[in-house]
Amino acid sequence: MKVLINDGLNKEGVQIFEAAGMKVDKNKRDLEGLLRDVGKFDALIVRSATGVTHDVIKAGAKGNLRIIGRSGVGVDNVDVNAASDYGIIVKNAPYGNTNSTAQFTMGLIYAAARNIPQAHMSLKNGVWKRKSFEGVELSNMTLGILGCGRIGQRLAELFREHGGVIGYDPKLERIKSAYPDSRIQYLSKDEVIAQSDFLSVHVGGNGNVIGERELSLMKPGSYLINAARGGCVDEGALYNALNSRSIRGAALDVHSFEPEEGGVFSSIFTSLDNVVLTSHLGASTPQAQRKTSVEIARVVTDYLLKGDFTNAVNVGETIEAEKKPVYPLFIHHRDAPGAFADIARLLSDNNINIRENPSRQVGTNSNGKVITVYLVHQMVPQPILDKLKGMKIVYSAKM
Fold first, then answer.
1. Class assignment of domain 2-95+287-306?
2. Can you give the pLDDT at residue 318?
3. H or E segment at 320?
4. Measuring CA to CA, which of 98, 194, 222, 324 is 20 to 30 A from 248?
5. Is 245 a catalytic residue?
6. Among 232, 286, 295, which Cα is nearest to 91's?
7. What residues contact 200, with CB distance under 8 A and at least 6 apart?
8. Where in the chain are the domains?
9. From its phi and psi, is residue 247 left (phi > 0), alpha (psi between -120 and 50) or beta?
10. pLDDT, tens digit, for every residue of 49-107?
């Protein structure tokens, strides 16, 4: 198998591919080169620099391309819908940068609260100032988090010694299930915005989460922190709020336009003295890059060699997207050739539809018995369960 690493990858990730017997190509292609060559590879690995467009995916689908790996969390630069249409899996590596991004966000909070970058630049320019850089303490302040996934949860832990933490997430039940011991107090979005002294954005995608209405709900002395995606905040509305001092300040690590390395940065915020700007540094640590590299290499290799869907972004949410009920069917059976085919045939003959997704998991134990969990679109009637139990290879079948 062949892997194209188009934006570079730490050596630890490259070594995982090579250890699996895969041929790695690290020569960067531009768009023309990708359109020409991507179909020669089984996997395409990118960071944020490469745009994986509809045309690139179409070209890959005509050839051998089976999976696109995004070394990092955001997949804004990948046309995920096109990948799904052409039967190509998209995976990301969301866990490697959790600590680095949460720590950096905490640094942005400190920097904004105490005017650290402004004081630094003043001294660099030979001007001693103190009064105009007076800041605020974090003690007894409230941090509000929009997006309470892994980074939001870690940030909550870091802030906890200073004050209270409140949060909002549109998928709250899943968040509560994933983080049962969280110290975040969950409220509505508007309540979080209105009650926060520091409001930190940690949502995916590029749709506006903070616009003019949301900014009007914020406290006059509050701060907005964005280390998620530039498009999550209406920059024009935020500029007006900062310029009019309707909120006290902001710290932005992400921007609607981010040039290539060494490029010219232009932003409406550069003229303001109550905003801290950094160049998308949340995941920029050797530790995060190494962990992310290893993570994406492992999940891509596991898909190509084992059919494992871990971290797949274009299958993991499809149950919710379908809005169809699904039911787990638990079958304990012998690990024998043709077992899956025989079980699937019996279900099909009785009009039970097996949902085509990765939720069928197999665990083999030492005595040659396995448990397979099928997700099906209908409740399996007792007579069908009895037929399953009557198969020679089946020990039990339960809904």
1. alpha beta
2. 47
3. helix 318-322
4. 98
5. no
6. 295
7. 105, 109, 143, 144, 145, 146, 152, 155, 225, 226, 227
8. 2-95+287-306, 98-277, 324-398
9. beta
10. 899 999 999 999 999 999 999 998 888 899 999 999 999 999 999 899 999 999 999 99
- Decide if 360 is catalytic: no
Q: Per the residue annotation, which of 18, 29, 191, 280 is the catalytic one?
A: 280
pLDDT at 365: 53
Q: Confirm whether 2-95+287-306 and 324-398 share one CATH topology.
A: no
- The 3-state DSSP class for residue 149 equals coil
Pick from 122, 130, 172: nearest CA to 147: 172
DSSP-derived letter for residue 75 is -
Distance in angstroms (rounded) separating the CA atoms of residues 230 and 252: 8
Question: Which of 12, 258, 322, 356 is flagged as catalytic?
Answer: 258
Give the pLDDT band of residue 363 (cuts 50, 70, 90).
low
The overall pTM is greater than 0.85:
no
CATH class of the domain defined by 324-398: alpha beta
- Beta carbons of 56 and 14 less than 8 angstroms apart: no
Q: Residues 47, 229, 298, 333: which is the catalytic one? A: 229
- 213 catalytic per annotation: no
Specify the CATH architecture of the domain 98-277: 3-Layer(aba) Sandwich (3.40)
Grade residue 315 by pLDDT with cuts at 50, 70 and 90.
Answer: confident
φ/ψ (deg, to 5) at 378: -135, 150
User: Which helix (H) or strand (E) segment is 2 a member of?
Assistant: strand 2-5
What is the DSSP secondary structure assignment for residue 230, as one 8-state letter? Answer: G
